[in-house]
Each structure stands twice: as C-alpha cells, then as structure tokens.
Amino acid sequence: MPPVVTALYAAINAFLNIVLAYRVTLLRKAHKTSHGDSDDPKSPLSLGIRAHGNNAEYVPLAIVMLLVTEMCGGDKVVLHVLGGTLLLARVLHPIGLPLKSPNPARWLGVALTFAMIAAAAGYSLYLRFQIV
Hints:
Elements: H1 4-31, H2 44-71, H3 76-96, H4 104-131
C-alpha cells in the first residue's frame, strides 16, 4: 500500500517550506539584501532566514521517520497524530520566532518537533521488532 499519510504531510510541509522561503525573498527585496542577512540577529530578515532554515533542517528527518513508520505498518490514526503534530509544530515555530524570548509559540514548536521525531522513531522501533 502506498504511504498516503506521509504523502499528505510531506506535501503540506513542502508548501509551508515554500511559503517560508518566499517570505525570505520578500524580506530580501524589502531590505535590499541579495546575500546573507543583516548584522542584527533580531532583524526581520535574519529571523525569516532562521525560520526557513530551521524548517528545512528538521522537516526532512521528521518526514523520513513518518515514512518509515508508515512503511512498517503504523496505525493510520497514530500516523495522523504524528503528522499533525509536526505540522502544528512547524507553524508555531515561525510565529513565535520574532516574539520576545522566551515565548510559548516558539518553545512549543521546538518541543513538539522534537517529540514528534522521537515518538516516530520509538514507534518505528516498536513496529520493527513486532515484525521479526
């Protein structure tokens, strides 16, 4: 059976990544900066670059773990919980990034991302040893 649950969350997260990348493009245009960022780590351009970069760093591993879990026969409800958690986390993180630190949106985005990856990894191992 094709990995339809993973396909759904991979596609949605791909669109989210494109939105974040396009936001960086608009910020570069507004700040007349074609390369790099400003020297201020709190500038909108720097924060936009980090939001996109962070998404690009964590989503591939999370999607691979979701795919492995689905290919090992993971329950569809559990897969949707994992995929939905990832999507919520990746939307919360860039919302919270420009806010004064610490803030709940950014913290929750990070925590949910890590929890989703760890849960998918643990569930994959559980399923793997059930198959043997």
